[in-house]
Amino acid sequence: MSLQLYHTTFSPPSRVVRIIVKQLGINAEEKEVSLLTGEHMKPEFLSINPFHCVPTLVDDGFALWESRSIITYLVDKFAPGNSIYPTELQARAVVNRWLFWDAGTLFSTLGAYFGPIFRGGSAQPEMAELFKKKVAELDSILEKTKYLAGDELTIADITIAVTITTATAVGVDTSELKNVEKWLQQVESDLSASTWKDLVIDPANSLGTFVKAKIASS
Ligand SMILES: N[C@@H](CCC(=O)N[C@@H](CS)C(=O)NCC(=O)O)C(=O)O
Fold first, then answer.
1. pLDDT of residue 1
2. Cross-strand partners of 59
């Protein structure tokens, strides 16, 4: 078996996949791709992923990109039946709903806030406000349940925890939302201290320092 994970340290979706790989004890060879030096646009990488994005997984020659499709594939292949991605139809549908909500709404709103600075544009403060509104909606959900999809930690919690901690690091603060804060502490305590530090907080803070400096100088 040969499993390679192409990733970038500061990329939030790459970090989500690396967390799941670590949580499940999957033996994957991690290969850093430098977006800053344009490695992702080189023919070698384009031949693997013509959409030139990280994370990209290659499983015995089968290439897959999009972090949420990668993590669901990894659980189904290496840890079928694990409560982190339930198999019961409706329980799985709820987890999938949160993953799609993150992709289509929450993370994309955050990306719309700071993404333009990587393309020569400026941050869009109204997107930061919209992001906070979305997290406030999440806060009301988390008033009723321990995790996003009920009583068990799932890949949706890990994915959305990475989104929200990335937001905090780039200066979009939602710490006044007490249920979200309590849930984040719960997710932190479910992961190992090294996972939280190395794959959640430290890289988010490095990205945050870069983004905040760019915004301040624009
Ligand atoms: N929706 C994708 C987003 C992937 C993505 O946009 N990755 C960025 C880094 S965070 C990237 O590779 N950008 C370079 C490019 O798309 O050319 C996912 O969740 O995997």
1. 73
2. 3, 62
> In b/e form, how buried is each residue of 28-64, taking b as 16+ CB within 10 angstroms?
beeeebeeeeebbeeeebeebbeebbbbbbbbeeeee
Whether ligand 1 lies within 6 angstroms of the CB of 203 is answered as no
* Distance in Å, CA 88 to ligand 1 centroid: 30
Write the pLDDT tens digit of every residue in 5-48: 999 999 999 999 999 999 999 999 999 999 999 999 999 999 99
pLDDT in tens, 130-139: 999 999 999 9
User: Which of 78, 105, 122 finishes a domain?
Assistant: 78
Phi, psi of 148 (to 5 degrees): -60, -35
Whether residue 84 is contained in a domain is answered as no
| 108 is a domain residue | yes
Ligand 1 contact, 52 CB (< 6 A): yes
Looking at the structure of the chain, the number of domains it has is 2
Separation of alpha carbons 205 and 195, rounded Å: 14
Ranges of the chain whose pLDDT falls below 50: none
CB 5 less than 6 A from any atom of ligand 1: no
